[in-house]
Amino acid sequence: MDKQLIARQVVEQLGTDLLAAEQAARVAHETATHEENIAENKYDTLGLEAAYLAAGQARRVEEIGFSLRAWRQLQLRPYNEALGIRLSALVLVADENGHEQWLFLGPEGAALKIHIQQQAILVLSPHAPLGQRLLGRHPGDEIELTVAGRVHHHEIIAAY
User: Which Gene Ontology molecular function entries are recorded, alphabetically (predicted)?
Assistant: First the structure.
């Protein structure tokens, strides 16, 4: 599987998300500052609520922009046996039932699923619980992950 294509798809998705977040931030700002939303009494909170929403949308734009810059600067590296799994690794894991899943370890902010050649790839950061457990590991290693109080076992099948 082509890591360059994976990274490109993530950048495209983040770009789309950024445009949507910017539009939502503009609408929230316009609502917050519109003259019809000036409070007429202490119970009239529409303008205040819109201002909170605008601030949240602005933070979201900032976060997506940060993620997009990080992904654009990502240096794709091949798997190195001496270093183990690290940022930009493409990893195939199997759970205790033999169900296989492709994972791509990328920088912050892109916890999403993409499809390449009809294959689903979960994109996660090294700060995600599963991402943390993968760092420095090698094919053949087993990892545990507790989700909702239940322990899941995964075997690393391959890393690229």
Answer: translation elongation factor activity
Residue pLDDT, tens place only, 47-93: 667 777 888 889 999 999 999 999 999 999 999 999 999 999 999 99
pTM: 0.83
- With a CB cutoff of 8 Å and minimum separation 6, the contacts of 71 are 7, 10, 11, 14, 106, 107, 109, 110
| Helix, strand, coil % in the chain, rounded to nearest 5 | 40, 25, 30
pLDDT at 140: 97
Helix 46-72 vs helix 3-33: angle between axes, to the nearest 10 degrees? Answer: 160
C-alpha dist (Å) from residue 118 to 95, 113, 121, 143: 20, 12, 10, 26
Q: How many CB atoms lie within 10 A of CB 7?
A: 22
**How is the chain split into domains, by residue range?**
3-72, 90-159
Determine the CATH number of domain 90-159.
3.10.50.30
